[in-house]
Amino acid sequence: MRFDEAYSGKVFIMSREDGEAADAVIYGMPMDWTVSFRPGSRFGPNRIREASIGLEEYSPYLDRHLEEVNFFDAGDIPLPFGNPQRSIDMIEEYIGTLLEKGKFPLGLGGEHLVTWPVLKAMYCKYPDLAVIHIDAHTDLREEYEGEPLSHSTPIRKACELMGPEHVYSFGIRSGMREEFQYAKESGMYLAKYDVVEPLKGVLPKLAGRPVYVTIDIDVLDPAFAPGTGTAEAGGISSKELLEAIHMIADSDIQVVGGDLVEVAPAYDPTEQTVIAASKFVREMLLGWVK
User: Fold this and answer.
1) I want to staple 175 with a disulfide (CB 3.0 to 4.6 A). Which of 11, 108, 138, 154 is the partner?
2) Among residues 92, 5, 14, which one has the least CA distance to residue 54?
3) What's this protein's family per the entry (predicted)?
């Protein structure tokens, strides 16, 4: 299951060696072919892995240790540079394979368009799927400069696939007027600016349902995560995002997969973004993989 041809030798801390026996699989989606501002998120997955070596394996938040989670780091999917459609097809095919084998998929991006093929595969297995989307941006455009395959479109595509009433967005503070109008008129849930408080109200409504969680690192204020392609002032703190991850873990929803996207290491020489991202991934593994 490991992508040997493209694999660099880096793995997330405490990754197991046997992918077939693993309950969860970490995989990278090194794609930034459609970004509208600053490229570089294709380097995010491996830098997150590198930063994980500085983590403690134990989470005092959850009182769990990574040795308690049987997970495997498969490396990065060898996506064809500059080819969005082929890249999307490859991601969807790979996730389908993981789901057939009963694995919990945890993806590392890459631009946010990579979430779209994952959602297509997840929806095939879970027709009652709901999506929790934590982000600075609405991502509700139908196209960007005439291109329907764009990192600004995955949530609109998700709404059209599974119905907007099954999509829940949090932390939103940027988007076109038309995107906010679509959210209001379509029936999807959109919480502006905040994550923790609105999430408290939504999680009980999703109890028992299969839920996919996608987190864009730019939901954080640039003070906490400058290493991203489309930074937006006025975001939440790292502490608040950790609280949201833990609230999801402690809820009665059935988390069936997740991803963390849009880490672009080149814009953060301090590495605080990849350090934070690696900790979020640890907490997602410990909290969401049952």
Assistant:
1) 138
2) 14
3) Belongs to the arginase family. Agmatinase subfamily.
Q: Give the range of the structural domain holding residue 200, as residue numbers without chain letter.
A: 24-288
pLDDT value of position 131 = 98
Domain assignment present for 19: no
Structure tokens at 37: 């501002």
58-59 vs 64-65, strand pairing mode: antiparallel
Quick one: which of 72, 134, 61, 124 has its CA closest to 93?
A: 124
| Residues 244, 168 contacting (CB under 8 angstroms) | no
Q: 131 and 212 in contact (C-beta within 8 Å)?
A: yes
Q: What is the reported pTM?
A: 0.96
Counting as low any pLDDT under 70, the low residues of the chain are 1-9
**Strands across the sheet containing 104-109:** 71-76, 24-29, 104-109, 254-261, 210-216, 130-134, 167-172, 189-192
Q: Which of 288, 206, 220, 215 is nearest to 252 (CA)?
A: 206
Let me know if residue 11 belongs to a domain.
no
Query: Tokens standing for 87?
Result: 């890249």
| pLDDT digits 0-9 by tens, 74-105 | 999 999 999 999 999 999 999 999 999 999 99
Q: What does the H/E/C string look like for 135-174?
A: CCECCCCCCECCECCCCCCHHHHHHHHHCHHHEEEEEECE
Please indicate, yes or no, if residue 255 is contained in any of the structural domains.
yes
Question: Within a domain: residue 50?
Answer: yes
> Which structure tokens are listed for 270?
């301090």
User: Any idea what the CATH number is for the domain that residue 214 is in?
Assistant: 3.40.800.10
Number of domains in the chain: 1
